[in-house]
Amino acid sequence: xxxxxxxxxNFSIGKDTSAAQQIVSAMKSAGPNVIIADHSLDTDHGRxxxxxxxxxxxxxxxxxxxxxxxVGIIDFTKHSGVHPCMGVVDVIPFVxxxxxxxxxxxxxxxxISSKIGAELxxxxxxxxxxxxxxxxxxxxxxxxxxxEGVAERICTPEGKPDFGPMKLHPTAxxxxxxxxxxxxxxNINLKTDDINIAKEIAENIREKNGGLRGVRAIxxxxxxxxxAQVAVNIVNFRSSSIKKVFDTVSAQAAKKNIFVESSExxxxxxxxxxxxxxxxxxxxxxxxxxxxxxxxx
Length: 297
Description:
With about 300 residues, the chain is an alpha+beta fold. It folds into two domains: about 5-180, Formiminotransferase-cyclodeaminase, Chain B, domain 1 (2-Layer Sandwich); about 185-295, 2-Layer Sandwich (Alpha-Beta Plaits), CATH 3.30.70. It has helices at about 15-30, 55-75, 100-120, 140, 145-155, 195-205, 240-255, 280; strands spanning about 5, 10, 35-40, 45-55, 90-100, 125-130, 175-180, 185-190, 215-220, 225-235, 260-265. Strand 9 and strand 10 (about 225-235) form a beta hairpin. The longest helix is centred in the N-terminal third of the chain and has 18 residues, at about 55-75.
């Protein structure tokens, strides 16, 4: 591959594990010129996260096949899951990795958005770097209020999609597509079932509340494990490392006599974000060091 781009589509599958298998299989069927490096399923979050590497049309085709399969087999009106979302394919980010630029990602973003809107009749909102509308840079702004919020705004000038129809797909909702920098999804599980503690910690560590730079966070309850979780997105790992986030959450939990049970990284991370002994230090689940981006380049 001359230019390597990462795409990390997030699918809202609820508790249907068979849907996850079908979506990944559909993406693999697009051809040999893409690498599906990882896929992570969490039925509490109701979410499938797939990490795929490729370039140009090969990557676009693989992602499109996954989107098409998801739209065909999932009914979002029956969705369950604690993670915020606004459709069966909640978000599709493109990330420049090697010899690729943001302009390459923007072209892919626009090409697949046009195709999704025209052929699958999904309203598409552009977010992230070089968004068509500056106020839509943050994903949280685009999907605020969830699918109900999008439904209220979609016929207004403020809520008009960038591609596709000015109405929600009846069973698939809407989708956000963007170009962005590397993001690390990092979940920290607490030894408590008190969601209010997780929510308070999440609120304290968010950048927008004066917390850690480049950190977005929410507190959720995981029914299957009967624990509260601080679900974190690190959008600037050089300013706020995984270790720093973990230490900050641990310290805030300890003030309430709560301790960290475990943590998990969703998807892949760059080598520069890792450190020796991180598996044991962070109490990571299923971490063997193989999910480093550079391993696939």
